[in-house]
Design goal:
The complex is a heterodimer of chains A (303) and B (421).
Chain A (H helix, E strand, L loop, with lengths): L1 H18 L6 E5 L2 H11 L3 E5 L14 H9 L2 E4 L9 H7 L12 E3 L32 H18 L4 H25 L7 E4 L5 H7 L2 E5 L10 H13 L4 E5 L5 H10 L2 E5 L12 H16 L1
Parallel strand pairs in A: 1-2, 1-3, 3-4, 5-6, 5-7, 7-8
Helix pairs in contact in A: 1-6, 2-5, 5-6, 6-10, 8-9
Chain B lengths: L1 H15 L8 H29 L7 E12 L21 E3 L3 E10 L2 E10 L2 E11 L6 E9 L20 H6 L5 E10 L5 E11 L10 E12 L3 E22 L5 E21 L9 E21 L2 E25 L2 E17 L15 E12 L2 E11 L6 E12 L8
Antiparallel strand pairs in B: 1-2, 1-3, 1-17, 3-4, 4-5, 5-6, 6-7, 7-8, 8-9, 9-10, 10-11, 11-12, 12-13, 13-14, 14-15, 15-16, 16-17
Classes of the chains: A alpha/beta (303), B mainly beta (421).
Chain lengths: 303, 421
């Protein structure tokens, strides 16, 4: 039975691949590299995909540049995180693009956060708390189980916008889900050794990854989300770490290494730069190698 | 709520019970499943609690800009040789509330968006902007109507809190009254090209430019822009504005050096060229970035001028023609997070000014070249607050070299909308 299903699926996939002309029918603008990569997995050559940001850029701090406006103007679909991550620039792109298809509420605007349960929802919304997101922590793609949920919704959305490609999207989606599920099992086995390892994080962008892998976050380098740590604050943190030692401090490729290296050297732990998203390291070329590389770096540092 | 407590207690009891075969993977799996379910329940509960306490999800974005300063200067910022055009905020000395702005913006319905900006000063509220804009026309077309900052040039659309310096550049201050506010409609079209190409048309009534039935103002602008690799982006534009003035108020230094009041009626034709270039290493502006901005303005005025008081005590009316220009260039460098330093150079060309023969002995053209150097340093504790120091050597008034010091704060409360590039 199972064999039959697999055979049927691979047949369907092959058919879909063969039937698809090698030209893109959809223009997709992804807000961040992980959504570009996910869209690539599902849409393949049916879509021409550009990412508004790279792994070297802080997705909170992007400007609505002329080049991005030109891309938003021609997009059939915009794939973004939502949960206010892109609030500083995406609304401007939508408004100024003159593109009715990508406005909020339209099928051409896809918000990944809408299908994921967010953690760390603030109970008090006050700017004195730093740069907080009312809807919860928006960096959820680093728990790959969330990627499965987003992939389901995205495949449906692609089929809604481009009905002619429905079979193509369904087949590629099924193939992606099968591969990702297998990879998740593998990653979780690999990460057994990481369970309970005490870590320090630079920003709260690691919360989903650490929760998934069971890493124990003992401190944040930022006194408040989005507020850079001062040397005095890092000094205090050093004192706190004496009582509760950590094994490593995590930062994203786009974050300055200064603070994490400063504290790593004094506390005697490793400063680990993780790709954070696709393109954040030489190895992280797609969603699979992103997690492969992330786990490899974590395991190396935990040794 | 009660139900949740019960479930929690039951689950806690279940998990706490010592089980004989604890190493059994089946039990581990069940435990993980229970933990996940408990977590989900808690999250749902939190979400429900939050939703019921929120007053409304449809609140418009309201923000308040608090801006104040200390300004030390000798002169009053008067610019020799140029007829002022419209609304100017002036430059009060000492401590002052520069500009308090209240803005409201929201989607009106799935087809349009509304926005208003009120500048509040003692005893008066000025409507700087109040417009509606379409969002659902598609094909790259956006129509805006109401009162808005004209899309001409680059800094015309920027509100004072978005300026990189404590004051507006001299060319805009001298020839546009700080910025040109349009009461009317604007049509913009963004081309479906890989490179940014935008065309705009405006028809309206220049605000502060007089009261008339016929359309007072037409503008057309074109902008192009793109990225150069990951680190560079730029925009360049060319604009033209034809504005009809009806008794536009101003003043001119008469031949005795006294200030005479003027009213200009006629046509003003502007040409503006602008260029902005921004750099950030790999597009990450957090640590370091640099912005270069320059604009050139040319104004051609033709009409009649009424002059009163001072040398024109009897009241003089005759023709007035002027071809004048000005430009500025500025660079702002963020050398480390939160800190920026900038330099700006302003220069005006008095050009050719022809007063009708009746003005002989009362008013005459000036050959003076106003100039200004400005240096600024600002510190932003967060993206919502900024403190600035500016030193300027202002030679905009003939015979006066004014060394100015300005200390300024700009803070914004609320979900302040993103700024344009």
């Amino acid at each position: 039975m199972k064999l039959l299903k697999i055979l049927l699926l691979s047949g369907l996939t092959a058919l879909a691949f063969a039937a698809t002309p090698a030209r893109a029918t959809l223009n997709v603008l992804a807000c961040t590299p992980e959504w570009a990569a996910l869209t690539q997995e599902i849409a393949g050559n049916r879509a021409k995909i550009t990412s508004a940001t790279t792994a070297m850029q802080d997705p909170h701090r992007i400007e609505a540049r002329p080049a991005l406006l030109a891309q938003a103007r021609r997009a059939n679909l915009v794939v973004c995180t939502g949960a206010e991550l892109e609030i500083g620039w995406l609304p401007l792109l939508q408004r100024e693009s003159g593109n009715a298809a990508i406005q909020a509420g339209q099928p051409g605007y896809f918000e990944a956060a809408s299908v994921v349960r967010l953690i760390e929802k603030p109970t008090v919304l006050d700017r004195a708390m730093g740069d907080i997101h009312a809807a919860g922590n928006p960096h959820f793609f680093l728990d790959p189980r969330n990627l499965l949920k987003v992939a389901d919704a995205l495949a449906q959305r692609l089929a809604e916008i481009d009905p002619a490609g429905a079979v193509h999207y369904a087949a590629r989606h099924q193939d992606f889900v099968t591969r990702l599920q297998a990879a998740i099992v593998r990653w979780e086995q690999e990460a057994v050794a990481l369970k309970g390892v005490p870590v320090v994080v630079h920003h709260k962008n690691w919360s989903y990854l650490t929760a998934w892998l069971g890493l124990n976050v003992v401190a944040d380098l930022e006194p408040k989300p989005g507020i850079d740590p001062s040397v005095a604050y890092l000094g205090q943190l050093l004192g706190k770490l004496k009582a509760q030692p950590a094994k490593m401090v995590l930062r994203a490729a786009y974050q300055s290494p200064k603070a994490s290296e400063w504290i790593a050297e004094r506390h005697g732990m490793k400063a680990v730069q993780l790709p954070f998203t696709v393109g954040g390291s030489d190895r992280a070329k797609d969603l699979f190698s992103l997690f492969d590389d992330t786990l490899a770096r974590l395991k190396e540092a935990a040794r | 709520m009660h139900k949740l407590t019960l479930i929690t207690a039951a689950l806690a009891a279940l998990l706490a019970t010592p089980l004989p075969a604890l190493a059994n993977p089946e039990i581990d799996r069940l435990r993980a499943e229970f933990e996940q379910k408990l977590k989900t329940l808690q999250e749902n509960h939190d979400q429900a609690a939050r939703q019921s306490s929120a007053p409304s999800a449809f609140n418009p974005e309201i923000s308040l800009i608090l801006q104040g300063r200390y300004h030390n200067a000798k002169g009053d910022g008067h610019i020799t040789g140029f007829l002022p055009a419209g609304h100017n905020h002036g430059a009060p000395k000492g401590f002052s509330l520069d500009h308090t702005e209240l803005t409201l913006g929201a989607s009106i319905d799935p087809y349009s968006r509304g926005f208003a900006n009120f500048a509040i000063a003692d005893g008066r509220i000025e409507t700087e902007e109040a417009w509606i804009q379409t969002t659902a026309l598609g094909n790259g077309i956006t129509v805006k109507g109401g009162r808005y900052l004209s899309g001409i040039g680059y800094s015309n659309e920027q509100h004072p809190h978005a300026w990189d310096f404590a004051d507006q550049n001299l060319a805009y201050a001298a020839m546009l009254g700080g910025h040109y506010i349009q009461d009317g409609v604007q049509l913009r079209w963004l081309a479906p090209t890989p490179m940014f190409l935008q065309l705009g048309l405006e028809a309206g009534q220049g605000a502060d430019w007089g009261d008339r039935n016929q359309l007072g103002s037409h503008a057309v602008f074109a902008q192009i822009g793109d990225d150069l690799g990951a680190s560079h982006s730029w925009r360049a534009g060319l604009s033209s504005l034809l504005a009809r003035a009806d008794r536009r108020e101003g003043h001119w230094d008469d031949d005795n050096g006294d200030e005479a009041h003027t009213y200009f009626t006629g046509k003003s034709r502007y040409w503006i060229a602008d260029l902005v270039w921004k750099w950030a290493p790999l597009g990450n502006s957090k640590q370091q970035n640099f912005e270069f901005q320059t604009e050139y303005l040319h104004r051609n005025e033709n009409g009649s001028l009424v002059c009163e008081e001072a040398a024109c005590a009897a009241g003089i009316t005759d023709s007035f023609r002027a071809r004048q220009s000005g430009w500025y260039a500025q660079g702002v460098y963020q050398f480390m997070p939160r800190w920026r330093a900038g330099y700006r150079y302003d220069r005006l060309d008095s050009g050719t000014v022809n007063f009708g023969p009746t003005f002989t002995g009362a008013l005459s053209a000036s050959a003076y070249t106003p100039e200004r150097h400005s240096l600024m340093l600002d510190y932003s504790p967060s993206e919502f607050s900024r403190l600035r120091t500016q030193l300027a050597r202002n030679q905009s008034t003939q015979g006066l070299t004014d060394n100015q010091v300005t200390l300024q704060y700009i803070h914004s409360l609320g979900p302040h909308g993103a700024h344009k590039f």
